[in-house]
Amino acid sequence: MTTSVIHTQALAKVYRTGVGLQPLNLEIKAGEIFGFLGPNGAGKTTAIRTLMGYLRPTGGEAQVLGLDVRRSTREIHAQVGYLPGELRLAPHLTAQELFGILGRLRGGMSVRQVHELTDRFGLDSSRPLGTLSKGNKQKVGLIAALLGQPDLLILDEPTDGLDPLVHDEVLQVLREFRREGRTVFLSSHVLTEVEQVADRVGIIRGGRLVTVARVAELKAQLPHRLEVRFAQPVPESVFQTLPELRDVQIEHQTLRCVVVGEADHLIKTLAAYRVLEIRGHQPSLEDVFLSFYREEAHVDSLAF
Ligand SMILES: Nc1ncnc2c1ncn2[C@@H]1O[C@H](COP(=O)(O)OP(=O)(O)OP(=O)(O)O)[C@@H](O)[C@H]1O
């Protein structure tokens, strides 16, 4: 049986000045990387801080690792590897000292794990935290979240401020983490990174979860552009009648069209001709994401 690592039922947060999170139903299973996507002000941090017990929900309920977010805040803090969106680090401590303190709080840490992570992320752990650049502070926050191999990581914008090499290394560490059966819940506006690591994504907008799906499913919902080059002239009418094709054009023995949904008819029709080349344009998660936002652009004027 797959266990539920995060479970929310109509979890809501209303601030005095407005809604932060509309009733949210979410189920995150052990061993998955779940990407929580949304533009500025969508409600990602509100959801994460509520799950971590730093904000009190105004409605609904939630369990993290089976612990109630209202009643078991201390246990949740002890058991979840958490990276906040806004890191506050004691400026006079070095990373080494901070990791030592955290290790003691968590009942011991592996010196080998700290060395391995500081090496992989290229962090000088001997400098006072107050003197570190934004990206290096982010590395400290990430290593602090990873210490002690927690079963669940909740990361608010984990790659914020990181250079491309470290960024890729962090994604690699998250994949390794998943391989061990652990779970990652991460928020991001960086769509391409979520696409690279997440098993499923949830898209949030205006405090409301617009959709939850596997990355591949989301992509399949979008039209694909296709270009097919034939060895001989082909009749345009054959392709004009295929139900899954839009914008069909044939020029110099090349078919250009947009495929919506299943490509079964198209493949069978193509089989009657000699095809020299097929080029497809696969929608990126960015296309999917923007399509969800454009759909509802009239509801909310938030720009993305
Ligand atoms: N302490 C607060 N008091 C009142 N409103 C708040 C507070 N924190 C957040 N909000 C509001 O709740 C909504 C969701 O904000 P939240 O910070 O959760 O979004 P986000 O998706 O994390 O955005 P970003 O990507 O910019 O960090 C926004 O309208 C925001 O203005």
Automatic annotation (TrEMBL):
It holds the Pfam family ABC_tran. Coiled coil: none annotated. It comes from the Bacteria. Residues 6-231 form the ABC transporter domain. Gene3D superfamilies: P-loop containing nucleotide triphosphate hydrolases. GO terms for molecular function: ATP binding. Keywords: ATP-binding, Nucleotide-binding, Transport. Belongs to the ABC transporter superfamily. This is ABC transporter ATP-binding protein.
